[in-house]
Task: structure prediction
Amino acid sequence: MTDWNYSILANNIRMQMKKQNLNQQRLIDLTGINQSHFSKSLSETGKNRFTLEQVVSIANVLNVSIETLMMPSNHTTPNLSFSCDEICLFFTHLLEEGIISQGTIRVPETVYVLNDDPYDDSGSTFVRHPTENTYQCFYFSNYIDTDEILDEDKLYNQLLEFEQGGNLNTKSETINKFFEFYTTLYNLYKNQNLTLDDFKQIIKDRLNNMSSQ
Result:
């Protein structure tokens, strides 16, 4: 997130707190965010920054959408423009924290390539070319894999835990169920079987239910 976008986020949180007559300590208590981190993240200097999970928690407590906290006050749509390095940093953080896993996926696509056929008199500079490309993909695994960097004793203990209690990753399972639900709902909205307001409200309710569990 750029400094400009983060400044908007912090300012909108302060505005919502003032609007709802909610002081900083009360919001800290309701979100469970560390007091020092919260204060530094909300300050003008912005020495710290709220994580995405913390922004969701703040939005839920304030009973507003994430878009409301992200958008400039004089705009009706949020500015969600992320640079390539911001996107890469976000995903590397999720990978390093073990929140997501990485793999590859092959995708059939149609690519327009330069037309170098000397006998083609169609006048087209580029022509359609069906192909299959390999991409990096990220996913939330429902199961915890063994950590091979652990020493022998810790690895043995981890395997013992799996044998006694299984290796289900309940957090990832919850996230996957949400995105399955979101995709189904989004397709209904995209096919005009659901209004935008209803779509947003249903998703908001689903996220609120997740945060309360």
In short: The chain has three domains: 3-70, 84-139, 152-212.
